Amino acid sequence: MIKSSAFDTYWVFAAERQAIYERRLRGDDPPWTRDVVLENYRFTNPYRVTDRVSQYLIREVQYGPDRSQEPTELFFRTLLFKIFNKIDTWKFLESELGSLAWRQAQLAKMDGLLSRRIEQGVSIYSPAYIIPAPNLGHERKHSNHIELLQMMMLDELPKKIGDATSLKDVYDHLCRYPGLGRFLSFQFAIDLNYSSMIDFDEADFVVAGPGAMDGIAKCFSSLGAMTAEDAIDVMAATQESEFRRLGLDFRGLFGRRLQPVDCQNIFCEVSKYTRATHPEIRGTSGRQRIKQNFSPSKSPIEPPVFPPKWGLETSRLDSKSEIVKIPSRQLRLL
User: Which is it for strands 220-222 and 2-3: parallel, antiparallel or unpaired?
Assistant: First the structure.
């Protein structure tokens, strides 16, 4: 592996983006950073589990009040939520159909409700990442997705996943279905692993998505004989020594280390961040602009929730971390 000039930027980004999350969680007043790129553009948190959609998934869809922990229902709710990956779509369906459960599924009615919502000009999918439509004979994307979910349920996929012996096994089961592919199958496996349905070590398996592939190409001028997944595993394994080498204050997530899925996520975000900090490094996508501006929410961040099986103590945050000026090379705001 040959590191590029953007390699250290990966760690600088991770430390400062996590510090921003901690400052906002504590209720600190802005500014939360002096990094002009992080101040002006939207980037997700280093830890995937702390993003807004994952937090809603855990808090409301998987472990919410009166939510059945029966594996079949956990699978149905999780996949229904994640196929659209949009909180407003879930809330809309619940407001129209009541509690969303396989044992009382009204899939045809659900299809019609979503069709009506589209006709009203409302987007039902999140733009976070592209979710391709399986070709199952329906004209509309969401109709094919509802058909796909029904196919999974009738195939007794929840039972097969409940009997899985590893996170890779869960991924392999999901990969067999049309329209998912490697990246989505991995993401859905991680989402299911948040629930009480299965309990595998996140460090055991990772898949690099398109954004991460671009970030990896920017941080390494060559991987040699290693794969993109190998590069992610290296970052996860060496994180403490790299933060220490650069003198960066990174405290983890209430003591939890970055997992490979998080390192994959950071590569994806660094792919965007380096468009401003390292415009000379083109990566694999060739993109030069950061599209989403950052607009801070007026509402405070809710105290995070995590899968109970992780055993994280979230009752307090460490003392305030200093906001420091991030050294930068001629940053250009795009």
Answer: antiparallel
Digit-by-digit pLDDT tens for the chain (334 residues) are 899 999 999 999 999 999 999 999 998 988 999 999 999 999 999 999 999 999 999 999 999 888 889 999 999 999 999 999 999 999 999 999 999 999 998 999 999 999 999 999 999 998 877 788 899 989 999 999 999 999 999 999 999 999 999 999 999 999 999 999 999 999 999 999 999 999 999 999 999 999 999 999 999 999 999 999 999 999 999 999 999 999 999 999 999 999 999 999 999 999 999 999 999 998 888 787 887 778 777 667 889 999 999 999 876 555 454 444 444 333 333 3
Q: CA-to-CA distance for 22 and 292, rounded, in angstroms?
A: 22
**Beta-strand runs (E) in the chain:** 2-3, 220-222
Q: Are residues 38 and 93 in the same domain?
A: no
Q: Which residues contact 302 (CB under 8 A, 6 or more apart)?
A: 55, 59
C-alpha to C-alpha distance for 281 and 285, rounded to whole angstroms: 11
Look up the domain containing 253 and give its range.
Answer: 2-51+205-310
Angle made by CA atoms 65, 150, 77, in degrees to the nearest 5: 15
Number of domains, the chain:
2
Contact 114, 124 (CB under 8 A): yes
Domain-embedded: residue 126? yes
Closest CA to 224 of 211, 234, 237, 212: 234
Tell me if 12 sits within 8 A of 248, measured CB to CB.
yes
In a domain, 289, yes or no: yes
Whether residue 276 is contained in a domain is answered as: yes
Residue 270 belongs to some domain of the structure: yes
**38 and 12 within one domain:** yes
Based on the fold, state whether residues 90 and 182 are members of the same structural domain.
yes
Do 104 and 224 lie in a common domain? Answer: no
- Give this prediction's pTM: 0.91
Residues 169 and 214 in one domain: no
